[in-house]
Automatic annotation (TrEMBL):
The lineage of its organism: Bacteria, Bacillati, Actinomycetota, Actinomycetes, Kitasatosporales. Residues 25-259 form the ABC transporter domain. Gene3D superfamilies: P-loop containing nucleotide triphosphate hydrolases. It is a peripheral membrane protein. Belongs to the ABC transporter superfamily. The keyword Heme does not apply. This is Arginine ABC transporter ATP-binding protein. It comes from Streptomyces cirratus. It is found in: Cell membrane.
Amino acid sequence: RGWIVCADLDTDKWAGQRMAVDPLIELRDVNKYYGNLHVLQDINLTVGRGEVVVVIGPSGSGKSTLCRVINRLETIESGSIVLDGHPLPDEGKELAGLRAEVGMVFQSFNLFAHKTVLANVSLAQTKVRKRKKEEADKRSRELLERVGLADQADKYPAQLSGGQQQRVAIARALAMNPQALLFDEPTSALDPEMINEVLEVMRRLAAEGMTMVVVTHEMGFARSAANRVVFMADGKIIEDRTPEAFFTAPESDRARDFLSKIL
Ligand code: ADP
Ligand code: MG
């Protein structure tokens, strides 16, 4: 997946510090506050092209905020965020362009209730990517097929299960041809029997080389699909390691405590 790994280094120890050949998302000394709350503290994180980074940590540790600042849905007080070599500006046309390069999938699917599945997937393509409707609809149908929903195109979101709605949300994010996808607890709102159908789509995207940042409590997914696990607590990145290293021998008390509660 495009990493220079020095064979003579302890790869577990250095997993989070390998030199990315091709960094796609870079956060440098990022700090963010909500009033007095220092919600992101000196965050340094590089996501290489094609990499899958799973972010885990207790509720309130800043995982969602991390996702939101990467797409500049939230301002930051200091530091920088660079997407594909371009520093994220505060506003303007360039921001809109860069934002479209990173698709977001949320816990709540955020589909338009009064639009069909097909229209939901086509909407941003015509509005933001300025595709013609026929072209957008063609692409939407291909993507719905890819997430296993080819036969649901003309339904409305309320007629689908939660797992199907989340797969529509993934198709919608893919429709923009993003360079990376961010997932913020994509399966947390789903009934257990629907979690796997969504994780399966995500696993396939990962295997196809999509760059992904995934906030999730699904440790099976982290173990099987992640290149790195980033553990956050109290607004800080506490560990950034391979899944094997993290799950077999977490270094920090915070991570050990967290794992003992969820595993
Ligand atoms: P996580 O996703 O890890 O649960 P969040 O990033 O949602 O954590 O939140 C981190 C902290 O920031 C929490 O203490 C939360 O209450 C606080 N927070 C999140 N969003 C806001 C907001 N819009 N205004 C004020 N505080 C917020
Ligand atoms: Mg969250």
